[in-house]
Design a protein that fits this description.
This protein is an alpha/beta fold. The protein has 11 helices and 7 strands. A 5-stranded mixed sheet has the order 3-2-1-4-5, with helices on both faces. Strands 6-7 form a two-stranded antiparallel sheet. A hairpin with a 3-residue loop joins strand 6 (273-275) and strand 7. Helix 1 (2-11) packs antiparallel against helix 2 and helix 4 packs across helix 5. This is IS3 family transposase.
Length: 301
């Protein structure tokens, strides 16, 4: 039937609609209803194409990692009130999809069996009532052609903000101490803050424990070989390695520069994460909200 209606629309410049409908045996009311619907569909298609463009821009800006939830949240932050199912449909139709994280990584943990471990003060509760009260740390390796680059990090559990990090061609105690000094130097650790890690020798070293004691912090450790006891720190590394876009660098200098850019300009200030109470925010915005400051962007509903 649509073919008949399209024929009428194409020929109505030469013949009256009354005549065309009579010859083709269709009701004028049916034709007019189809034409009205066709116009609405045409408008809808143009609107969908414009929305696909906005979705694509957000997707590319997210390093092609955002899926439907965060694409939808970013649209709302930009004042675009659009149905989530519509976003999902358009992304599916145009082959736009987020990344799923790769699982598994070789652990760097080398426990010092002679050192007494600290108690587990976290017990897999990776939340905190306010920034600076509970942080988790870990070390990962970054592959470069000239050798490994090691990255030590400290993640605030209240905001999921990366508050301290350090990179070097080794993973001795200096590496984790330097990262902790960064967080402390920025004033992001409260007195009595719980510092949670695995039982690696870097964290049981005299140098690291001495620095914790002088800073008025409390040490916490998960069990040996149980990655779930430090899952929040592991999760950040999964995000980094999946979303940074490079699998192996030419040299350590370029890897350091890319990791710095990823953390400072993207992860802390642009990457959205859903807060159970406040909706989608970046880690930096979450810290602002905790401190009673209005975030840089409107909250996602």
């Amino acid at each position: 039937m649509s073919e008949i209606y399209r024929f009428i629309r194409a020929e109505k410049a030469h013949f009256t609609i009354v005549l065309l409908c009579a010859v083709l045996g269709v009701a004028r009311s049916s034709y007019y209803a189809w034409e009205t619907g066709e116009q609405a569909r045409s408008v809808r298609e143009r609107e969908d194409l414009a929305l696909v463009h906005e979705i694509t821009v957000i997707h590319v800006a997210s390093r092609r990692t955002y899926g439907v939830p965060r694409i939808h949240a970013e649209l709302r932050r930009q004042g675009r009130l659009v149905n989530r199912k519509r976003v999902e449909r358009l992304m599916r139709e145009h082959g736009i999809a987020g990344h799923s994280r790769r699982t598994g990584r070789r652990s760097l943990t080398r426990a010092d069996h002679k050192a007494a471990p600290a108690p587990d003060l976290i017990r897999r509760d990776f939340t905190a009532p306010a920034p600076g009260l509970r942080v988790v740390g870990d070390i990962t390796y970054i592959p470069t052609i000239e050798g490994w680059l090691y990255l030590a990090t400290w993640l605030d559990l209240a905001t999921r903000e990366m508050i301290g990090y350090s990179m070097a061609d080794h993973h001795r105690a200096d590496l984790v101490v330097d990262a902790l000094d960064m967080a402390a130097g920025l004033g992001l650790l409260e007195n009595g803050c719980v510092i949670h890690t695995d039982r690696g020798s870097e964290y049981t070293s005299t140098q690291f424990r001495s620095r914790i004691g002088k800073s008025g912090l409390r040490q916490s450790m998960g069990r040996t070989g149980i990655c779930f006891d430090n899952a929040a720190a592991e999760s950040f590394f999964a995000v980094l390695k999946e979303e940074i876009g490079t699998r192996i660098w030419n040299d350590r200098a370029s890897a350091r520069a890319d990791i710095f850019t990823f953390i400072e300009t993207y992860y802390n200030r642009r990457r959205l994460r859903r807060h159970p109470e406040w909706g989608y925010l970046t880690p930096h915005e979450t810290r602002q909200r905790h401190h009673g400051t209005k975030p840089d962007h409107a909250l996602a509903a």
